[in-house]
Amino acid sequence: MKTKIISYLLIISMIMTGVAYAAEGLNLSNEDSTYGQGIQKISNVNANDENQSFPDIKNHWCQSVIEKFVAKGWVVGYDDGLFRPDIFVTRAEFTAMVVNIFKEEKKVEGSSFTDVNKSDWFYNAVSYAASEGLVAGYEDGTFKPMANMQRQDAAVLVSRLFEVDFFEGADEFKFKDEDTFPEYSYQSIKNLASHEIVRGYPDGTFKPYNLITRAEAVQMLNVVLKYIEVPEETPPLVPPETATPTKEPESTPEPTTTSTPKPSTPSTGGGSKPKPTPTGVSKIYRTYTTTKDFEEGIKINLSSQEIDCLKLDETTKTFNYMWVAVSSKGTVVKINTDTGEILGEYRTAPEGQPLNPSRTTVDHEGNVWVANRDGNSVVKQDMCLLMLTTMYG
């Protein structure tokens, strides 16, 4: 038993350490590109072709591993011939990767999530993972499959894959930002960190809400492959739709916590947080394009165009439907949805943080935090706001 635990320690330490420093030390952004948060139909690439490669992974730090995974049929590229290694991986995609590689997936009748339907490409993978106890949903009964995968969720899921369960010394290991850890992942992160299973960033933080990219996800699972015998090869889980990539924003200060996140996966057990769960916010990143096709890097004028915006429902404080208007100055605007007239202009900013139009903070009740036009205060705004990462004027 002791040998088994030591093996697990070495495995996951290698997994999460590589991901943490890849995210910190590499520039994964595409500064000249702007993508919409849309979904497009894709076709499967020849996943079993060992020579299959993609022009956008040439000289990428994860090139060889990506090519290996493609050759095995575990991941696929897009029908435009790209792999897009540096876009964020979704909860559905990461779950499907894990199930496809490490589990002999069995057909599951019925889903426990209200937003996972039989028509979805990830239906059986997510449902099966839930039945195996690998993933859980939110308190409202959803799984949020299209939400991007966070570091804390990846750590919890990988921990469950290995059935890691040790706690000695966890209370002595400290992260500078551990007061922002949600209850459900707090003990898992502390447990793994106390045994050097996961590591934080050079500044002493773990950044549980940071997102992971497709390349980072592939690298993480590649390390796992060294220690887990995979089932007989099965056809890859291929989404019939391609999530249009979201450009990773430039580094900006972490937001001040203001509300309690709902767990996407329950606690792995082994103790509880030694103090009340701190509140926190979720950072939602969006980039936008016109509805027309265009080549990456081409500058476009987004002034007053109707594209794609999150509108808040004033009663339920939840995202209701998509709508838009943008100013050519790189600021968000309040608009008249009938005429398109700009009624007010705002810059987005986390509560208590400097103005930064590349990051919008949204709490779990659906409130958007923005700074007033004069920049002197930060307030909640229940209205139609554009969330953006890059503006071209």
Automatic annotation (TrEMBL):
Region (Disordered) residue spans: 234-284
Domain SLH: 49-108, 109-172, 173-235
Leader sequence segment: 1-22
Composition bias type Low complexity, residue spans: 253-267
Protein's UniProt keywords contain Aminoacyl-tRNA synthetase: no
Domain of life: Bacteria
Keyword field: Repeat, Signal
Keyword presence, Signal: yes
Residue intervals passing through the bilayer: none
Gene3D superfamilies associated with the record: YVTN repeat-like/Quinoprotein amine dehydrogenase (2.130.10.10)
PANTHER family recorded: OUTER MEMBRANE PROTEIN ALPHA-RELATED (PTHR43308), S-LAYER PROTEIN _ PEPTIDOGLYCAN ENDO-BETA-N-ACETYLGLUCOSAMINIDASE (PTHR43308:SF5)
Name of protein: Cellulosome-anchoring protein
Record gene name: ancA10
